[in-house]
Amino acid sequence: MSRRIKIVHIITRLDQGGSADVVMELAGRMDQERFEVQIITGRTLEPVSDLAGYQKRTGVPVTEYPYMRRDIMPLYDVLAGLYLIHRLWLIKPDIVHTHTSKAGILGRIAAAVTGVPIIIHAPHGHIFYGYFGRFISSCFIWMEKWIARFTDRIVTLTKLGAQDHIRYGVGAPEQLLCIPCGVDLSRFADAEKEGEWLRQDLAIDRDLPMILWVGRLVPIKGCDVFLKACTIVITRLPDARIFILGDGYLADSLKLLATEQGLDDHLRFMGHRSDRAIWMWAADLFVLSSINEGLGQVLVEAMSTHTPVVATAVGGVGEIIQDGITGLLVPPSDPEKLAEAMLYLLQGNANVQRMGDQGSKRAQDFDAQHMVNKTVALYDELLKEKNLCAA
Known about the structure:
By secondary structure, this protein is of the alpha/beta class.
């Protein structure tokens, strides 16, 4: 029997949701008879995934290194880079697959220094704009151009993401491959009854509108825009109940804004929740108000529960939602347009149920196994190109 192919995934942080969920799904679903997989991650102060439970359930080892941080921290960055060089030298992987910006830079440099045969990077977002100031973005783009020279493939979540790389000169077209993120939809399929029970526990009758927002409380997610839109909504629907699931460093300022907007009697901040599937089934409307977004994985989750969605037309969101058919798209940073779309779906429009059903069908295209199959096909292609043993 041929030896197993060694794969190391490197990611900046494994906080719950988004890129972390994708990496854990991808690593955990690999055929362990063919692949020997492990994850190296930095540490986050936000709600973290249950790494011990994950390792026990999947058999995938996870190593945390506290000095790999999302922010630019020169001393920690050097320490993290040296650590990764040491770890990869010991492991001697066939494939290093990096995820997100910081891990992508440090991990690919470490992989190149240690002679890893196959280097793959997944940015997990539209990373060249919207996150940093002009100077930092320029430096980041220059570094990405340089590191792309020793990257075998750059995996984007969306076609727009691939176009961004070409437009900014990061990588050659033949290096780019679009593989949308995958969601374990089975976690969302069986929570409908629990959703009804949740509404009963919250004392929200079915004729009262329940609005849900899920995400990190950070500027890029645009929760302040959502709050301002809700101020408009409650003037028309004073019985609306609004729930925000998520944590982040803007929590206190957003709670203050909610008070200033007169939302205290209508809105509750619920913090981080691991049972968001139940909340999505319970809700009448799901809203995404991001200023930038890689793909919008949380949209797929909400759509899978037949819940109508309103989202800002940013990043790859338009590759999930077909406006007016599987959901509604609005411009970013526009509370009035966002409120208008929310009211359209909450006020009993005849298209609402159809839109929810069409959204659920669309969500099936983003099942995690599709992502895994496409990624394994990429691994096999590169293993063949490099004349490496593939079991």
